[in-house]
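Deliverable D2.4 — example input (structure tokens):
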């Protein structure tokens, strides 16, 4: 049965707009699929004409290409007309109905086929149609499918769009008309010739290109190096070019002058003229590209570690692109005495790239070259410095050469300074090898007096023997560098020291600071030494507190309070007071008041020698972490003592009787220390001193059994007892579960293994092997201590966030991890500055210099370098 026309009209009226839009989309879809080859060919043809390709080839090629394009256009048009069919309304209705659930359009137009006489069936049918008719309100236009990828698998349509886009950006519609006059001389004469021109400045000037057809003024300012592009259209010879700005030789003939395409660069001021009908003339004033300049800006500063900071300033009218600092040995200025009497080995010039601003203009700036040349053979020797910079045009500039001392680390310890001196002599020329070995052997003749540890003397002797052995056969460059590295490492150990006694380290830091003041050290070196003094002070206070706790455990808390006397009669100083006093010393030195600074430093020395540290609260003991750190420190000291005794035994084997008297005195002192350790072990329950005392007592008993027992066996027994003590400490090690705690446990495991090997070497009489194993054990112990300290510090930081103000201190005096005052509420708002005090700007400058230094380190991760660059751009 045919649909009811009235019902059909009613349905179409309800969906008229979705139906129309769907039909129009189908029209666009079929036009696109039918005619995409047509507009693709048209785009290619138009793009080629706008780019002026017809002016670059012969007329025959233009006609051939035009015929091919015309044929392609005709075929594409014929294909489109044959394949295009206008969509009917029924087609749109079918597509729209298919997009709806249940095909409501078709259901609304249908008639009941059977059961129309049944009232119940008719009611059901009407209800169904009403439901479908209500669903027509949800009708929405169907989006057309404009994809033609199946018909164009090679995406040629995108090539056509790209061609037209390039023509719109770089071409001109004026070029299209030139194709209409090709081969038609009379028409060309009627229309007349035409031309186009562009002036493109160098990219580094950041100036825009100029379309010469729009320039009507007779004068034109052009930067040096700008490119001039001219194109002439029409009859050949009707237009010509005459210019004096490129410095090119005059045209050899008339045909060269009348070329229709000319490109040249502006290198001088002059005139530019386009001769012929519609031509134009300009007076070109060339803006010269100024050469860059560079100078050293300010004094060179050197840190305690030998890091150099050399500021320099550079200028250029458009910006600096590169710079280099060249250091060359100033041989005429070198003191040619001692190891430098012979000619030096030839070494390449030391070249270091100059840092450039990461953000901002490079036309005028000041930067700082940060480098450390302490290990270079020319360190602390006269060198000739040459600074050079380069701009984008390739112009270079050099600063006036100057002779200065190549900055490097200064060594204050006499033995370390002597080692560095012989290292430099060896690097000066390998012929100094035997002489350097002889001097090193002479200064280390009495190792007990010259070295703080026997390991240092043994290492120097090994280096000396290696130098003497290699010198007999000739030292090559690789061996020279290896020996220099060993001597440098030894000098660092001798300079920095590895002192178990914190007081000695404190005195050494004070002596070093006083010597630096007398030698006229720079402010930065003084600041570095002040930081070392602060660290030594902290270490001394910790060791002093530990000693007093041990005495309290032995004598009882009551006796300690009696010894202390009345607290009101004693002057108490907090660690903040000590820090303030050291800050005052540094301030006096920076102000040049050296006498007052010397007096304050002496007062600080006396106070530290007479200081007695009290606990914060009565009866407050150490935390498990502190006990573990103290126990491992004691183990490290005991291991150092064993290693020193083994070294003295080794010396006695090579030089019998030379150190017998000294060794007896040292053994007596060690016996007293061992007795004290035994008393402490008896006073502590389940403490490390008890087990160490038992191990030492066992070693003493075996060492004194008579002539049948050997000294090596005694040392081996003591080594075994120390290894057992370390094993016990490992079982109770805090910080388990953290990454640092795991690394600490691993390092202590290596130390225990090295102790086990040292014990075996001692029992076999292999003293050199035992000393090497003991050195490995001490290094592992130090690593374990560092890792354990990091683990405990991390736990403390985590606990601080949970404690809040539960410590009961004054909130106004509390500080957050960034050093800011917490205020009266104990909270820090985001408006409060991170730095406080009078030294804000100096600290900000130091932070900025550190960021710049790290930015210049190419070995850092890319993510970190990008973060640092963002910081520099912001600040």
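Example output (designed residues):
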């Amino acid at each position: 049965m045919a649909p009811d026309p009235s019902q059909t009209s009613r349905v179409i009226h309800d969906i008229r707009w979705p139906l129309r839009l769907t039909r129009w989309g189908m029209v666009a879809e079929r036009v696109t699929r039918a005619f995409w080859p047509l507009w693709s060919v048209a785009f290619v043809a138009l793009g080629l004409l706008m780019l002026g390709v017809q002016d670059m080839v012969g007329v025959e090629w233009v006609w051939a290409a035009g015929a091919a394009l015309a044929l392609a256009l005709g075929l594409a048009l014929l294909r489109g007309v044959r394949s295009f069919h206008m969509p009917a309304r029924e087609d749109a209705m079918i597509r729209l109905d298919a997009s709806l659930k249940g095909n409501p359009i078709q259901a609304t137009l249908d008639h009941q086929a059977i059961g129309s006489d049944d009232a119940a069936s008719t009611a059901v049918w009407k209800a169904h149609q009403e439901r479908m008719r209500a669903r027509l309100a949800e009708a929405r236009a169907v989006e057309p499918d404009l994809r033609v990828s199946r018909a164009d698998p090679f995406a040629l349509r995108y090539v056509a769009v790209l061609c037209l886009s390039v023509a719109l950006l770089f071409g001109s519609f004026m070029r299209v008309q030139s194709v209409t006059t090709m081969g038609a001389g009379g028409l060309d004469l009627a229309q007349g010739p035409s031309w186009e021109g562009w002036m493109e400045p160098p990219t580094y000037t950041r100036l825009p290109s100029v379309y010469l057809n729009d320039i009507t003024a007779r004068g034109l300012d052009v930067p040096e190096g700008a490119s001039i592009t001219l194109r002439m259209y029409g009859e050949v010879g009707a237009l010509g070019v005459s210019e004096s700005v490129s410095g090119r030789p005059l045209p050899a003939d008339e045909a060269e002058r009348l070329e229709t395409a000319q490109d040249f660069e502006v290198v001088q001021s002059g005139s530019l003229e386009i001769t012929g009908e519609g031509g134009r003339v300009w007076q070109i004033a060339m803006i010269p590209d100024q050469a860059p300049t560079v100078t050293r800006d300010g004094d060179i500063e050197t840190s305690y570690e030998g890091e150099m900071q050399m500021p320099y300033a550079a200028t250029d009218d458009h910006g600096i692109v590169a710079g280099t600092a060249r250091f060359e040995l100033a041989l005429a200025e070198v003191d040619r005495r001692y190891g430098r009497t012979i000619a030096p080995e030839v070494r390449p010039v030391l070249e270091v790239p100059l840092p450039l601003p990461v953000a901002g203009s490079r036309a005028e700036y000041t930067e700082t070259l940060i480098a450390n040349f302490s290990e270079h053979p020319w360190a602390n020797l006269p060198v000739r410095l040459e600074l050079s910079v380069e701009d984008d045009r390739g112009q270079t500039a050099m600063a006036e050469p100057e002779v200065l001392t190549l900055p490097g680390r200064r060594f204050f310890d006499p033995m370390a300074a002597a080692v560095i001196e012989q290292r430099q002599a060896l690097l000066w020329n390998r012929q100094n090898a035997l002489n350097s070995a002889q001097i090193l052997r002479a200064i280390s003749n009495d190792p007990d007096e010259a070295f703080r540890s026997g390991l240092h003397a043994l290492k120097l002797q090994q280096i000396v023997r290696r130098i003497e052995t290699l010198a007999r056969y000739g030292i090559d460059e690789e061996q020279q560098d290896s020996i220099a590295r060993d001597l440098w490492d030894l000098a660092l150990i001798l300079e920095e020291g590895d002192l178990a006694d914190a007081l000695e380290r404190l005195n050494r830091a004070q002596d070093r600071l006083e010597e630096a003041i007398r030698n006229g050290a720079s402010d930065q070196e003084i600041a570095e030494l002040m930081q070392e003094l602060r660290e030594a002070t902290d270490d001394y206070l910790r060791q002093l507190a530990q000693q007093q706790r041990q005495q309290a455990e032995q004598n009882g808390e009551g006796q300690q309070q009696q010894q202390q006397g009345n607290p009101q009669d004693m002057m108490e100083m907090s660690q903040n007071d000590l820090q303030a006093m050291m800050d005052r010393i540094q301030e006096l030195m920076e102000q040049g008041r050296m006498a007052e600074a010397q007096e304050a430093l002496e007062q600080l020395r006396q106070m530290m020698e007479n200081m007695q540290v009290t606990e914060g609260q009565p009866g407050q003991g150490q935390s498990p972490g502190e006990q573990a750190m103290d126990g491992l420190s004691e183990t490290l000291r005991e291991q150092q003592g064993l290693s020193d005794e083994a070294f003295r035994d080794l010396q006695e084997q090579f030089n019998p009787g030379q150190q017998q008297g000294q060794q007896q005195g040292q053994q007596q002192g060690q016996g007293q220390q061992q007795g004290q350790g035994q008393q402490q072990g008896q006073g502590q329950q389940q403490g490390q001193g008890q087990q160490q005392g038992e191990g030492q007592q066992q070693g003493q008993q075996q060492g004194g059994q008579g002539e049948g027992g050997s000294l090596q066996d005694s040392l081996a027994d003591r080594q075994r007892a120390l290894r057992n003590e370390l094993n016990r400490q490992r079982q109770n090690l805090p910080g388990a579960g953290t990454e640092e705690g795991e690394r600490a446990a691993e390092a202590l495991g290596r130390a225990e293994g090295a102790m086990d090997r040292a014990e075996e070497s001692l029992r076999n009489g292999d003293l050199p092997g035992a000393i090497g194993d003991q050195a490995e054990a001490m290094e592992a112990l130090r690593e374990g201590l560092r890792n354990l300290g990091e683990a405990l510090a991390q736990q403390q930081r985590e606990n601080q966030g949970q404690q809040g103000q539960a410590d009961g201190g004054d909130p106004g005096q509390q500080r957050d991890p960034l050093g800011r005052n917490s205020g009266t509420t104990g909270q820090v708002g985001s408006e409060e500055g991170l730095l406080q005090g009078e030294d804000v700007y100096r600290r900000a400058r130091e932070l900025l210099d550190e960021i710049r230094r790290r930015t210049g380190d190419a070995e850092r991760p890319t993510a970190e370098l990008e973060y640092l660059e963002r910081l520099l751009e912001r600040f």
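The chain has a mean pLDDT of 78.
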